[in-house]
Amino acid sequence: MYNFEFEKPSTIADAVAALQGDEAQALGGGQTLLPTMKQRLASPATLVSLSGISEIKGICTGDDGALCIGGATTHAEVAAGAGAYPALADTAAHIGDPAVRNRGTIGGSLANNDPSACYPAAALGSGATIVTNARSIAADDYFQGMFDTALDEGEIITEVRFPVPEKANYQKFVQPASRFALVGVFVAKYADGVRVAVTGASENGVFRWTEAEAALSANFDASAVPDAPAADGMIADLHGSSAYRAHLIKVLTARAVEAAA
Amino acid sequence: MPKDHGIGAAPKRREDVRFLTGAGNYTDDINVRGQAYVYFLRSDVAHGRINGIDTGAAAAMPGVVRIFTGADFEGVGGMPCGWQVTDRHGEVMQEPAHPILAQGKVRHVGDPIAAIVADTLEQARDAAEAIEVDMEELPAVIDMKAALADGSTKVHDDLTSNLCYDWGFVEENRDAVDQAIKDAAHVTTLELVNNRLVANPMEPRVAVGDYNRGTDDSTLYTTSQNPHVIRLLMGAFVLGIPEHKLRVVAPDVGGGFGTKIFHYAEEAFCTFAAKACNRPVKWTASRTEAFMSDAHGRDHVTKIELALDADNNFTAVRTETHANMGAYLSTFAPSVPTWLHGTLMAGNYRTPLIYVNVKAVFTNTVPVDAYRGAGRPEATFQLERVIDKAARELGVDPIALRRQNFIQPDQFPYATPVAVEYDTGDYDATMNKLEEIADLSGFAARRAASEAKGKWRGLGVNCYIEACGIAPSNLVGQLGARAGLYESATVRVNATGGLVVMTGSHSHGQGHETTFPQVIAEMIGIDESMVEIVHGDTANTPMGMGTYGSRSIAVGGSAMVRAAEKIINKTKKIAAHLLEASEADIELKDGNFTVAGTDKSVDWGSVCLAAYVPHNYPLEDIEPGLEETAFYDPANFTYPAGAYSCEVEVDPETGKVTIERFAAADDFGNVINPMIVEGQVHGGLAQGIGQALLENCAYDETGQLLSASYMDYAMPRADDLPFYSVDHSCQTPCTHNPLGVKGCGEAGAIGSPPAVVNAVIDALHSGGKTGVLHIDMPLSPDRVWAAMQ
Description:
heterodimer; A: 261 residues; alpha+beta; Uridine Diphospho-n-acetylenolpyruvylglucosamine Reductase, domain 2; Enolase-like, domain 1; five-stranded antiparallel beta sheet; four-stranded antiparallel beta sheet; 24% strand; B: 789 residues; Aldehyde Oxidoreductase, domain 3; Aldehyde Oxidoreductase, domain 4; seven-stranded mixed beta sheet; 19 helices; 28% helix; 22% strand; globular
């Protein structure tokens, strides 16, 4: 790890100001960033910890009924406190290991947008709104590819608003070594239709499987899940071919529908 | 009623108190005043020519003590190989130089190019980034068969090819085996890969070199399974330090599994640099560094043929294996695919004709050497897989086919056609025990229950035999070992009767500090707490060959028994004197010496005190004091054997395999501490199941290590493993060591992979996928699913 300056502001405004510094980097729970820094693969001049900002922590219900989760809320807190959205709480409860869940935050995960992370599937599958210090971004506009998001330099996720669906479920098929999602599918049924978001599979990061959404919106039953999507563009690595990942998308979607129904 | 004391009792492990409460003393816990730290700049290419190294800017950076490159080791010995194999043409193996730091070329990702010694590790790392290496990348040789093709790039320019040796065993049987296969009623052929593994002990390797300018003594603290072997190899062959000026200490060691047997360049470097810099030098491997510098295991590509006659008797086995040596020869690498592999190809069976061909190949990968089981898992896997395939092809019960071909109890000692003589065994007994503890008769009902929930259930059964308790020195010397394989012990009795056993064996998880005292306690009739075990320091233990090959109790324990017998003989003389009786009439029982047929007695403590306060003592006949040393060289290997079964469920939709049941019936001969034996079996099973389902050390075609961290190298976790049914009540004691013990450390890792694979194949057949005859390990979900398509 290279040397760096460390700041821990207590307000959003101070954090935003601190992030204007040269090569400043926001620090959520650090569960990805710190190992990367230890390997000297990242070398921010200043780390701006968001863990001291109480206004971006915690869980509440918005006036529109959405579940609102502060950006610095840990996975363990979501697992315990998101009872209004059981599928989301369950998703958080199975991210990483206890250390990851007790340190890692929803804002940090969404800002990183790891192509195998769980939260991007939950946010996209729920049609969540990512609220920052500057604006609100619809999930459909937010995820822009592997490790790429709509966030601007120095922009902080302050809150994530999840519309609560009628039914939902997340199915994660773990990569045997890392236990990240080899493929993960989040299915949520809303009054106006079904959303299906897939993580772990695509070279472009999390995506919506629109064919399945259309079919399931018409008939929310596992038998309605269409044939597996094409393997083109799916990740191929030591742990699974692109064809295998495409196949798992179908299997897991059906299981999510069954579990949700 | 189980014993609470001595041999056969199950006291808890006394060493666990310090291991589990943070009071252990591991090598990384050792800090020598004034120590500097070394960081190794390692190659990020698999094969390259070093046209220049500019260390100028780096040397001027803060805290840098000195930067070393290969040029600093001209004239210093390279890393030695401890075993020379002679091939089927009578030629000795090709043995490349292995410098401490790369000279001229790098040959695998992780090969050390330079070593930066600095006041702090961070300073050393900073300086490493300022070193400029002019590297000309060369084509990498990764695939073994491609490495042997004409015109292949050579890993070592000065060798004639990438072939280390072409070994045939037993060469005289080659034609007869070929003929038997031609004449067979049925031949089953199987091609398979025994996947490359990384041992991954919990504690990475660490070395601390220290040099005393005043006395010219060198000390190395290191994570080793055999400190005396390191002292001999490093002192005599690498650095030219006589053994009396070199102390090697292997304190608490957090697991070895074979990979800490070998002498590594980092150890030699720290010892060398401590003198060169006149400062202690410490190195602690990071986990990723461990992945690319610890010797790997397995990595065989094999074709095996099993010939049977019309009555399903095995008539011949022929195997051809390509064994990956990696870029250099690690300390015992040449012995693993040969003498630890070919000699086991008879398995538990009467097969009369066997021929084993092994081509050892150099590639641009990390060196491969012994890993838990070392050669014997590779032999067991191919044999037990091909038998299973034969049973399937012939439509016979795989257990019955095995039983039909077992060596029978009345045939022991049994000389196999592959040069070893099994002393004892009863393979039907362990199979009977397995059928009982695994409840094999209930399998059909369990399969039906699995099917009812949409899963395919499979049963895999196999046997294994291993040769351990290695090894008779005169025999291994003929086979190419450049070392003896005896073991040693000094038993020191203190004046007040307590004992210290200084053993040449090393304990790094095996529990010697608990089991060895049980043996002494049994022999004398005293409490275990009166016995202390000292190991791991060449300064206070007799020359020993260390711990590997399931040899500690069989060889090290035997040395301790011999030394203790000398002690007991002497104490009987003293007791006879004190009791004014004939020595022949003295009996030692429950810590008391009595004169047979009388009520005269003297206790152990009084006799020991007399030896050190020899006022009333037979000084004319015997010396004062009670300290004896014995070296024990075994007459034969020991041959643990057993039968294992595995039941799996396969998810037809995803190919995911879950292990539902696993049973192991082992014959380890006599057992000292059944709890520790069970723990050893559990650990071996975890590693064997890990190999079968999860672990895979993978390179891409350019020689980049794809599995260089736990993000991609899948270690078995507790929830990957079932509760085991383990039994070791079938005991045919070893006939040639004093304890009748056979060793248990490797059995689980040897016996379990074929059980898992046999079970998965069985599950797929039950699901109608009858075209799947083999899947290469690890049987990860994507591989199983691909096989089903």
